Amino acid sequence: MSSSSGQAMLKLDAVEAWYGSIQALKGITLEVNEGEIISLIGSNGAGKTTTMKTIHGLMKPKAGRIEYLGRDTAKISTQELVQMGMAQSPEGRRVFPKMTVLENLEMGAFQREDQSEVASDIEDIYEMFPRLRERKEQKAGLMSGGEQQMLAMGRALMARPRLLLLDEPSMGLAPLVIQQIFDIIVEINRKGTTVLLVEQNANVALAISHRAYVLETGTVVLEGTGKELLASDAVRKAYLGE
Question: How many domains does the chain have?
Answer without folding.
Answer: 1
